Structures are given as structure tokens and as C-alpha cells.
Amino acid sequence: MDVKVFDNKDQASEAAFEFIKAGLANGATTLGLATGSTPIPLYKHMTDSDLDFSNITSVNLDEYVGLAPTNDQSYRYFMNEHLFNLKPFKETFVPDGLNKDAEAETKRYDQVIADHPIDIQLLGLGQNGHIGFNEPGSDFNGGTQKVHLTQSTIDANARFFEKEADVPTYAYSMGIGSIMKSKKILLLAFGENKADAIQKMVEGKPTEDVPASALQNHADVTIMIDKAAASKLS
Ligand code: F6R
């Protein structure tokens, strides 16, 4: 793991943008993308840039079960607002939160990933060490799954909803096994509330209790964090 520590999230986000830009210049055509607060400054750099994404495909990590693309809390809506409406991509994939048939949806999304091998996978990090919505205990080799979100994740995401009861309790998520097949992985994490998860991910033994620790087994992972997120590293 190549861990890069920056003074603040703005500097880290600028470096992340340069990382994506260099990846595209080197021939990357498929980006794995994340939602949440962490990648917003990076997406702003991307939309402000003169980079052309019209030949680029994106495959998102996850989506809440039960939310329509028009729901402003859905991840499809988030991606449209922050990136796709401002920078047209060739094709964009997000799991279909309205598909009630979990077996069909997880199979369909695994096929999407197989058909569009990911060159650079962007990840955020949950306070409990989750990547995508792969919560503690997730299989390191798993494919797309319907996940029951943990209380910690529901609490963390409640800030985006009017009230906690509105936070969906299930999501479809790309599995850790699929994330691990990406050629390169770039994980971003900012703030003190990520420091524990960063410490366990980087310095702990790989364990399913800390999903992000699986990344220790990947050959090309770059971690860009601010000082606060790095504060528990030895
Ligand atoms: C979102 C995702 C999640 C988030 C994580 C951190 O697509 O996959 O793993 O990256 O929950 O969220 P933020 O960035 O809001 O702290």
C-alpha cells in the first residue's frame, strides 16, 4: 500500500485528480466510482477540468435498495448531480435499487463488472472499515450482494436524510472480490473519525472484521489521506 498523507483534504483531492488524469493518459477507460462526502472535491476537480470523459465508462460501487434514480438520496442521483450531468461519460452503471429481485440484480451487476473490467477503482472508507457497502464480516472473495447495513453505517449516513428512519436499511454493493480485481485502487479518507479504520486497514492483520484490510492483498493500492485520518498510524 502506498500511503500518502496531505496537510488537508483539498491537497489530497487535487492529488487524487492528478492520479485519475494520469491514469486516463495511460489508457484507463473504465473507472469504478464511489459516492459519499469524500469524493465530492475530486469530482469538482473533474467537472472543472477540460478532461474529456466521453470515451470513459464508469461502474459505481453501490446503491440503496428501494430508492429510485429520481430520489435525491439515491446514489444514481448523487452521481448525476456531482459528475455525470456536468461531464458526459460514454456509459455509466449503478446498481438498480428498484430491482426487488436481489438474485437477478446481483447477477446482472456482476455481469456489468465482468463486461467492463475496472482500470481504476476509487474508494471511500467507512468508520467501521467498510468499502463499498461491504460491512464487517463480508467475504473477501464475494461478488455483488444485497447487504443489510449496520447501525454504524445507518448512523453515519443519517446526516444526508431528514430523519434516521428514512435511511434505507439495505443496499446493493459490489463485492470485495470484484473490487480486488480492479487494476489500480485509489482510496481516499479524510477526518479524525476515519483514523481508527485507517490504522486497522494499513497496520492491522487482514481480517474480514475490517473489510478494507483486504486491500493489503492487492498489488497496486494508493491511499490518499489528510493528517487527521493519518493520526493513529504509527
Ligand atoms: C459510497 C461507498 C461508501 C463510502 C463510505 C464513506 O459509494 O461506497 O463506502 O465511501 O461510507 O462515506 P463518506 O465519504 O460519506 O465518509
Written description of the protein model:
The longest helix has 17 residues, at 9-25. This protein has seven helices and ten strands. It has helices at 9-25, 40-48, 75-84, 102-115, 151-157, 176-180, 195-203; strands at residues 2-6, 30-33, 57-60, 62-64, 91-93, 120-123, 145-148, 170-173, 184-189, 221-226. The protein is an alpha/beta fold. Helix 1 packs across helix 2. The model has no long low-confidence stretch (mean pLDDT 97). Fructose -6-phosphate is lined by residues 34-38, 61-62, 124-126, 130-133.
Using the 3D structure, state the CATH architecture.
3-Layer(aba) Sandwich
Number of strands: 10
CATH class: Alpha Beta
User: What kind of sheet is the major sheet?
Assistant: 7 strands, parallel
| Global Rg | 16 Å
**Helix fraction by DSSP (H/I, runs of at least 4):** 25-40%
**Distance from first to last alpha carbon:** 15 Å
Query: Could you tell me the mean pLDDT?
Result: 97
Q: Identify the overall geometry.
A: globular
Bound molecules: fructose -6-phosphate
The CATH topology label is: Rossmann fold
Structural class: alpha/beta
Total tally of structural domains:
1
Spans of 5+ residues with little confidence (pLDDT < 50)?
A: none
Counting DSSP H or I runs of 4 or more residues, the number of helices is 7
Biggest sheet strand line-up:
1-10-9-6-2-3-5
Q: Give the strand content.
A: 15-25%
Question: SSE string, helix = H, strand = E?
Answer: EHEHEEHEHEEHEHEHE
